[in-house]
Amino acid sequence: MKQRTIIDINNHPTLQSSKEKMEVVNKIDLENQANIWKIIYGFCESLVLKCAVQLEIAETIHNHGKPMSLSELASKLPVQPINSDRLYRIMRYLVHMKLFNMEISPKVTKKYSLAPPAKYLIRGWERSMVASILAMNDKDMLAPWHHLNEGLSGNCNAFEKALGKSIWVFMSENPEKNQLFNEAMACDTRLVTSALVNECKSVFCDGTKTLVDVGGGTGAAMMAVSEAFPNIKCTIFDLPHVIAESPEMPNITKVSGDMFESIPSADAILMKNILHDWDDDKCIKILMRCKEALPREGKVIIVDIVLDVVDWVHPYTKVRLASDLDMMLNTGGRERTEEELKRLINAAGFTSYKVTQMSAVQSVIEAYP
């Protein structure tokens, strides 16, 4: 009778090596699967964020002045009655997102406080991002993303595919959505203009006496510029229905018109998030209208995203790439690299340009005739 050999897998050098290889493979496989699951549930974070804004969780804790227990928080929220178990599960996810902190007191009572990013969820201050959160996560604004694949075919516009008309027509026919959209644009304007007037003062302190904001909307940018540089005569230029709905602002002139036809004359022309809405031909036409409105020593101040195709680890890279897809889906426009912007500027007849980075998603591009 043959003697049975018992092999200890844990101590056998060859088998141990195979086992270690299998463990490495399993770990890599697990990480890859986890990454895909994380992407699949990517929508979860933005919609939980929207829920937190709608429930005014950040304001409630902020106004309370100190950490709140779950029961205290539940009793103060605007939606009543609140299911405490469901609120706890929402708060658990928000803590995981690092928007809120959970503290456990000596009596084992969980209390919630604001983590630093939560301040952007509070309404009523100039850097609040509430309007952008609500607009970007509106069900109609999300609809074009479900037609991303169809948008790759021919000249199909995903927004029109999803909602039956262009974004501009849709907004003009839906006042509630238009207000949501305008508030989000004003929110973004406040964020970028804060960086612009504080970090790029030389852009305005170069002898500029008159400034026209093309597509100035509700005037958020011009109000900030006028306050920071009171010596500059500021004008908002936009479509007639936009100008008609914009508020009256001291020391700011409002002019209606079509930027593809003509633009009011000024020492400098400001365009924030305008060129990214349009294809190259229309951008060149807009820039040509700007050049016609400028004196020889004037300039166009373009505030737009500049894509860096190499810098994949910059904190804004993902946002900038997502914004490019957003433009592709909704307006047919695009975010551009510096080289792509340079081609537009040259094609419109400008002789030189300068790019300045600032602490915002966008950069400043000054184009000179």
Automatic annotation (TrEMBL):
O-methyltransferase dimerisation domain segment(s): 37-122
Alphabetical keyword list: Alkaloid metabolism, Methyltransferase, S-adenosyl-L-methionine, Transferase
CDD domains tied to this protein: AdoMet_MTases (cd02440)
A biological-process GO annotation: methylation
Annotated SUPFAM superfamilies: S-adenosyl-L-methionine-dependent methyltransferases, Winged helix' DNA-binding domain
Annotated O-methyltransferase C-terminal domain residues: 145-350
Keyword S-adenosyl-L-methionine among record annotations: yes
Protein name in the entry: Uncharacterized protein
Active site residues according to the UniProt entry: H276 (proton acceptor)
InterPro entries found in the cross-reference section: COMT-like, COMT_C, COMT_dimerisation, SAM-dependent_MTases_sf, WH-like_DNA-bd_sf, WH_DNA-bd_sf
Top-rank lineage group of the source organism: Eukaryota
Any GO MF annotation of the entry: O-methyltransferase activity
